[in-house]
Amino acid sequence: MPDFIEPLRRRLVELGCPMKQVRRLVREVADHREDLKQTAVAEGLSGADAEARANALLGDPLALAEQLMTALRRSTWWGRHYVVTFSLLPLLVYPVLWALLLLVEMLLEFGLGYRWDAKKIEVAVNNPVTFHHLATAFQWMDYAAIALVALFFCWLARRSAVSFKWMLTACAVCSAIAVITWGKIEPHSFSLGFSMNSHLHMPWFRGVIPFLVAVAMYVFQRRTRRRFQEKVAV
Amino acid sequence: MVIGIMAAMKKTNPSFLNGVPELLVLRLLARQEMYGYQIVEEIRTRTGEALAFGEGCIYPYLHYLEAEKQVSSRRQEVEGRNRNYYKLTARGRKRLEALTSEWNRVTTGVSLLMEGQHA
Q1: What backbone phi and psi angles, to 5 degrees, belong to A160?
Q2: Burial of B12 (0-12, 13-18, 19+ CB in 10 A)
Q3: What is the pLDDT along chain A (234 residues), one digit of tens a residue?
Q4: CATH number of the domain residue B69 falls in
Q5: Share in percent of chain B as helix, strand, coil (round to 5)
Q6: Cβ–Cβ of B84/A58 closer than 8 Å?
Q7: Domain chopping of chain A, boundaries
Q8: Rounded Cα distance, A120 and A116, in Å
Q9: Is residue B113 part of a domain?
Q10: Count of structural domains, chain B
C-alpha cells in the first residue's frame, strides 16, 4: 500500500509551505484519513480495502498538496493579490519607513541628552567627532531600514506561501528603490530624496542589501526544509 | 457539487455564492464543536449529498476562519483519538447572522422570480 501522508508532506515542503502549516495540515489530513478508514472498516471492509478507499477519497496526495497550498495562499489578502503586494507595495512602504527613520534619528538625539535644546544641538553638530557618530548611526539605520523592508516582504511571502520568485521580485523592487533614493545628514541639515545620482558614499551598497536578504532567506528556507525532511525521515 | 472554497475566501467579491461554504461551516459550528471530518460528513449528509467539501480541503479553510477569528480550535483527545476541534467565536456568530440574513434575502428574491416564471 503506497504511503499517502509522506508524499503529501514532502510536496507541501517542496511548494514552500511554512513548516508550522505543514505540521498542522499533515496532522489534520492524517486524522481525516484515519476517520475515513475507520468508517470503511465499520461498513465491513478489510483494513487494506479501508485504507485503499480512504486514499481514493482523498485523491492524489500531490494534487491535494497543491489544493491545500492554493487555499492557504488565498486565505490572506497578500496571497490573493501577490502581484500588487510584492511588486507595488514596497514602493509605498518606503515613505513610511523614511518617516520612522527620521523619528528614530530625532529620538536618538533626544536620548543622547540634547532635549531639543538648540544650543546643545548646535554644539554637537559643530563637533566633528560627535557629528561623525551621529552620521554613522544614521547611515547604519538607513541600511537596517532597507534590510527591514526587504525582510518584511520576504516574511510576507513565506507567510502567504507564494513562490520564491515573488520574494525575489519584492527584493528587486526594494533594491531599485534603494538605489534611486537617498537620505543624507549634514551639519544643520537633513535631506531625503530620489535621483539617479545620489552623491552618497557607495550608493550601490544600498541596492545590494535587499538581494543579500533574499539570498539569506533562500539559504534559511533550504536549511529549514532539509532539517524538516531529515527529522521526518528519522 | 463540490464547494469552491477558493472563491469563498475572496472577500472582495460580493457574489453571494462565494459565502455559501462559510455559511455552512459557521452554521454547523454554531450548534456544536466539531472536527474537520465531522464537518465534511455533516455537510454531505445534511444537504442530501447535494454539496460536499473536497476531502482534506476543509482544513486550510478552517485555518482561514481561525485567522479571521471567526472560529477557535483546540486539540482534544476523545475516545483515544486526538483531534482538532473547532468552535464558533463571538465574531463568527456575528458573521453567521450577517450571512444568514443575506442568504434569506437572496433566496426570497430568487423564489419570487422563480414563482413568477411559473405563473
Answers
A1: -90, 5
A2: exposed
A3: 457 888 898 888 888 888 888 888 899 999 999 999 999 999 888 888 999 888 888 888 888 888 888 878 877 888 888 899 999 998 888 778 777 777 777 777 666 666 666 677 777 777 788 778 878 877 888 888 889 899 999 988 888 878 888 999 999 999 988 888 877 777 777 777 777 665 666 667 888 999 999 999 999 888 877 777 676 665
A4: 1.10.10.10
A5: 60, 15, 25
A6: no
A7: 5-75, 79-225
A8: 8
A9: no
A10: 1
Residue B17 included in any domain: yes
**The C-alpha cell of A180 is what?**
534611486
Chain A CB within 8 Å of residue B60 CB: yes
As for the ipTM of the complex, it is 0.76
Domain of residue B52, residue span: 5-107
User: To which residue does cell 487555499 refer?
Assistant: A71
The helix/strand count (H/E) of chain A reads as 11, 2
User: pTM to 2 decimals?
Assistant: 0.67
What DSSP state is assigned to residue B16? G
Q: Cβ contacts (< 8 Å) between B81 and chain A: which residues?
A: 31, 34
Task: Report the distance separating Cα A163 and Cα A17, nearest Å.
Answer: 9
Decide: residue A216, CB within 10 A, 0-12 exposed, 13-18 middle, 19+ buried. middle
Domain-located, residue B50: yes
Residue of B9, B54, B56 lying closest to A74 (CB–CB): B9
Q: Does B85 lie at the interface with A, CB-CB under 8 angstroms?
A: no
Nearest to A143 by CA among A224, A67, A64, A208: A208
Radius of gyration of chain B (CA): 16
CA dist A134 and A123 (Å) reads: 13
